[in-house]
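DATA SHEET
Item: assembly model
Revision: 1
Owner: S.N.
Input lines:
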Amino acid sequence: MELLYSSHPAKDRSEAMYLYGQLVGKWKTSIRHIPAEGEERFTSGEWEFGFALEGRAVIDVWQIPSRKEAELTGNTVECGLCVRVYDPILALWKFTFHGPLYRTTLNMLAYKIGNEIVQEMFVGRDIVRWIFHDITEEIFLWKAIRSKDGCKNWIVEQTLEAIRIV
Amino acid sequence: MCISKPITIISAPTSLGLRPNNDGLEPTTWQAPDLYLQSGFSEKIKAKIIRLEHPKYDFDAQFGTKIRNGLSIRAYSLQLAAQVTETLLSGNTPIVLGGDCSILLGCLLGARRAGGRGLVHVDGHCDYFHLGNYDITSRLGTVAGMDLALATGKGELLLTHWNEVDCPLVLETEAFHIGERNFGTEVFENAYGDIVSSKITMIPLQKLLEDGPAITAHRIVNELNKQNLSKVWLHIDFDILDQLVMPAVDSPGSPGLKFDELEELLLTLLKCNRFIGLDVTIYDPGLDVEHKYLPALTEIIEKCSLEISNN
């Protein structure tokens, strides 16, 4: 896939590309699923980010569990592909997610808010945000939250801790 | 004629914030700025003119948003904001000709970047729809019905989060609405009655008519003085006029102001020297084929421009 990958961000928008660009590399993930009803569930996986499309996009793939773990346990690997494209006219990111196992496709818009990356979408009447926070070179946190009352109250649905491998 | 501060007129010919008209077509508020300018008032007040393009109106939902033309409005707001900021930083006074009320966001963003604070929102409706008070699955949201909510930080991040501005474009305590005509009715309660629980100051139309334009304006000016707000934006939606004198707007209604009452309200406000710019919105020439209402509207814009430039 030489035409897809890029080794660095595009020069015409390198500053903006840093937002997701800071995540480029490979990460080990620990995920906590918090269902509205029932018990919490914990899984682990991997997440890999890289520049693509002449450095004007960041693409990433996450897997739960990792292939290595799946080989040992026989569990099915769930994976998702995210494409994140910076739009310089709108000064925001367009995000598309494909999860083939459950036939999921999602569109979100993403913004730098303080030191966080906040993605937003609408599911029925709910507002859903996926937020990258506490990002350092070695670790970052991520959470999925949902509001059913127009942003007054938020429910945490999933949290994730990522530790850099590469 | 005395003009102490040069005026820059920014033409913002847009209908992006409105739903399609009764014929299923793009509303024609975008035609208003050219008609105002054709009257020759800009030459009289020796204004510089900047013309933004008429943006493409999209009938379908856009990527990632439940707001009609949401992405286009963000792009247009950023473009308009750049012109407003540049105008203010060059020492000129911006007068923005709309267009529909979605232009308010670009005006406020531009003003904020030049140190602006505060908003006086003169409108027959308080435009306070947001994610918490209407069913976003029932229709695409229209910004012309939510501009005050968006300006005070309620709504999709797409139109409430702007780079370089950490908080909402306007704090609720620094926002003053004048003119909601349905206040206290079931229509109001069911639409955006929750505005009363915000910290936005609200003077309904009935109160405005009861007290009169001058007293109402003085009340607002007192508040601006109290809070020491000296770089305030003034938004004027012509639907504050009674439909009997001004039916050529998106949502006409009664009661409302007469032209001389609106003039008195605006000029009394502007005399206080606390405004840095203003915008006028919602006149739709397509609903006024003979342009019967145009001269009176242009006269108000001209008088307001002169008053604000003398501040």
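QC remark: Chain A has a mean pLDDT of 96.
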